[in-house]
Structures are given as C-alpha cells and as structure tokens.
TrEMBL record:
Keywords: Disulfide bond, Signal. This is C-type lectin domain-containing protein. Residues 1-24 form the signal peptide. Residues 39-150 form the C-type lectin domain. It comes from Patiria miniata. Pfam families: Lectin_C. The lineage of its organism: Eukaryota, Metazoa, Echinodermata, Eleutherozoa, Asterozoa.
Length: 151
C-alpha cells in the first residue's frame, strides 16, 4: 500500500464517521436538514404531491404527522399553505375507534374534530384531513391530498 492509498483510506474513515454522526443527530432530531422544518424536537416536510393516504404513508416512510397538541395542529396547518393535509389517524381497524401515529394503544389521542365530525359519511370515511379551518374531518382514504411527513 502506498502513501496515497493510506491518505484515501483515512479520509474515507473520517467521512464515514462524520456521516454516521450526522445521521444519528437526525435520528435524535437535534437538527433538521433543509428543506425539513424543525418544530418541537421533530422535523417536518410537506409531500407537495397529492396522494392517497396509503401513498402518503409510503412517501413519508410511514411517518405522516398526527398532531398531539393545539400548537402542533396549528404548526401543521401553517405548513399546509392553503391546502388540506392528511392527519395520520384512522378508524380502519374498528369503525369509530380512532388510532393515530405515535400514540400507544389505550392512550388518549389529541383530536380537533370539526362540529359534526367524524360522521363516517357516505361509503366509508376512515381517514382524516386537516381543513383550512384547522379542524379535522374524516374522509375517504382514497382521495388525493398533501401530507406532512414527520421524523
Ligand atoms: Ca370511519
Ligand atoms: Ca366526515
């Protein structure tokens, strides 16, 4: 091995150390790399694209945001920029039993339903969107709207 190869190997070792350090930082939410936006210890990014709920989950690697407080709800609405967005809650498993991403079974969920919602109107409304009024409405999971990914 000549000197040049040693230098390259050391450089690669340093680079991989930096990369693994920065990814562990991201996992701990110490920083959000652009275009992700930091809020309350997590990172958020709009899909921009209009997707079904399942496609949005796929696009977000199963981490569509579900607000846990009025403040987070308002922050998500501000990211939506005049569009409705998915909230990661469904009652697919059992009608009327709402389960949201990031909440353990039996844990009381944060909810911000519009008056008269959820109404499971029509065929079957098992997913939720955040309206421009910052309130929630249950809707069909097959409609295509934006989502905000959270990590
Ligand atoms: Ca339903
Ligand atoms: Ca509804």
């Amino acid at each position: 091995m000549c000197c040049g190869e040693v230098v390259i190997l050391i450089s690669l070792a340093i680079l991989s150390a930096i990369l693994s350090l920065s990814s562990s930082c991201n996992r701990r939410n110490w920083l959000c790399t652009a275009p992700w936006k930091k809020w309350g210890g997590s990172c958020y990014l709009s899909t921009q694209r209009h997707l079904t709920y399942d496609d949005a989950r796929e696009a977000c690697r199963r981490q569509v945001a579900a607000p846990r407080s009025d403040q987070e709800n308002d922050f998500l609405a501000s990211l939506a920029q005049g569009s409705v967005i998915w909230v990661a809650c469904t009652d697919r498993r059992q009608e009327g039993l709402w389960e949201c991403e990031g909440f353990q079974d039996g844990q009381g969920i944060f909810a911000n339903w519009r008056k008269g919602e959820p109404n499971n109107c029509g065929v079957r409304e098992d997913c939720v969107y955040l309206q421009l009024s910052y309130k929630w409405n249950d809707v069909r999971c097959e409609i295509e709207i934006q989502a905000v990914c959270k990590r």
